[in-house]
Design brief:
single chain, Alpha-Beta Plaits, TIM Barrel, 2 domains, eight-stranded mixed barrel, elongated
Length: 452
């Protein structure tokens, strides 16, 4: 870190840029560590081209950036997929932002690694001497904090360090620490949202949804902790726990004569890319004695493209176990019709964003109608999620949607709450056997009740 410290001592304004490669782990996992090392070398070459003429590039596997006294900008690798760029003697803060922009643009063209095209992006954090720290350690730490903020804000971007960034990153760190202990401390719960047969109103099953009951924060939104769990890899253990808990609970309900209920469980991209996942599902089915036909695994479109060949092999193996595969949030991601032909998909779930504005928005009407019609043509089951009003219900039923899910019938409930819901009515009275709707009688949950 000598060059950085020398610049600070000489009262030169210095910028520290912390760069982390988005998606580098995916490259390592799918192409191997040797390909990952080649990628890092190629990234270093492109980064060097973003610096000023005559500047030196330093590569190191530890936090060690060492240049001569008259060196200008320097580039060092901290290990793994993180790089640090030091811009010595900058005249204005905007110069650091300009370099960060050049770095991100330099990563846009694909890399060719062993005849394979590889795409990566970067997240960059910037700290400026004086305003953001007066010593090397503080500047590197603050640049790192800004980088994590950029990654959290959507990736493929850069962000300058501010005190609000510092506060948010600290909060994220505390949340991550709590998350690592939450499973062993039994702070997680599984909630269940009913799925209703669009033909006759029978309860077909439920979708398992995880909730975190933090001892101090209360219920933590999945939007806050699921992305963090995915980023840290904790989603694998968390997903396995949800799968086992949900399957065990569903088997218990079946034995209590509450119906031949099915259970839908969400699967993350990290789980789908694990060689052990098929064995995990097999073990859970064996231990819980839940029939495989009663388990549906929900996968997002994005999870399929991480490594499509590997994903196909995993899905084929899961299908041989007898489980069903659902494509979740259909229409919001890549939506390639080739996926429906190539992958063994049983069910499409229309994303709630297309259901929300039914039956008034012409775009939503066109998209929802097309998805249902296409599903029928391909002999796929189709589920409308996020149904909250009688008008929405009437629309999807009129278009012959197979299954309905949403707050019109019930919000996600804990196991005991769902048992009470099932005992009160096996069939929600807002659908008649012929699929015609009628106003819900007293006691039927509608969207407004759920929110209260």
């Amino acid at each position: 870190v000598r060059a950085l410290e020398q610049s600070v001592r000489r009262n030169r304004k210095v910028a520290v840029l912390s760069l982390d490669l988005d998606g580098f782990k995916r490259v390592n996992d799918t192409l191997g560590h040797a390909s990952g090392d080649i990628l890092l070398k190629e990234v270093s070459k492109r980064l060097s081209g973003c610096l000023r003429n005559g500047d030196r590039v330093v590569r190191a596997d530890t936090v060690r950036l060492d240049t001569s006294d008259n060196a200008g900008d320097a580039l060092g690798r901290f290990g793994g997929d993180e790089f640090v760029v030091i811009l010595a003697d900058i005249r204005r803060t905007e110069h650091a932002s300009e370099v960060a922009g050049r770095i991100l643009r330099s990563l846009t063209p694909p890399f060719t690694i062993n005849d394979q095209e590889v795409f990566v992006t970067g997240s960059v954090g910037i700290a400026i001497s004086g305003a953001d720290g007066d010593d090397a350690e503080t500047l590197i730490k603050n640049a790192d904090a800004a980088m994590y903020y950029a990654k959290e804000s959507g990736r493929n971007s850069f962000h300058l360090f501010t005190e609000s960034v510092h506060a948010r990153v600290r909060a994220r760190l505390f949340l991550e620490n709590d998350l690592r202990h939450a499973l062993e401390r039994k702070q997680f719960e599984v909630y269940y949202q009913p799925k209703i047969d669009g033909r006759n109103g029978e309860v077909l099953g439920t979708e398992a949804l995880i909730r975190w009951r933090h001892p101090e924060r209360g219920l933590v939104s999945p939007l806050d902790f699921i992305p963090l769990a995915e980023e840290t890899g904790l989603i694998v253990a968390l997903g396995e726990w949800v799968l086992e808990t949900a399957c065990r609970q569903t088997k218990k309900w079946q034995e209590q004569s509450l119906g031949a209920l099915q259970i839908a469980v969400n699967v993350s991209a990290r789980q789908l890319q694990s060689l052990a996942f098929v064995d995990v599902v097999r073990r859970v089915l064996d231990e819980t004695r839940l029939p495989a036909r009663c388990l549906e695994l929900e996968i997002t479109e994005g999870a399929l493209i991480v490594d499509s060949d590997f994903s196909l092999a995993i899905l084929d193996a899961l299908k041989k176990l007898g489980v069903r595969i659902a494509l979740d949030d259909f229409g919001t991601g890549y939506s390639s019709l080739a996926y429906l032909r190539r992958f063994p998909i049983d069910t499409l779930k229309i994303d709630r964003s297309f259901v929300r504005d039914l039956p008034h928005d012409h775009g939503s009407i066109a998209i929802a109608s097309a998805i249902i019609a296409m599903s029928k043509s391909l002999h796929l089951n189709v589920v409308a999620e996020g149904v909250e009003t009688q008008e929405q219900l009437g629309f999807v039923l009129a278009h012959d949607c197979n299954e309905i899910q949403g707050y019109l019938f019930s919000p996600p409930l804990p196991a005991l709450g769902l048992e009470a819901w099932l005992a009160e009515r096996r069939r929600p009275p807002s659908i008649t056997p012929r699929g015609r709707t009628r106003p819900p009688p007293d006691g039927v949950l509608v969207a407004g009740d759920a929110e209260e």
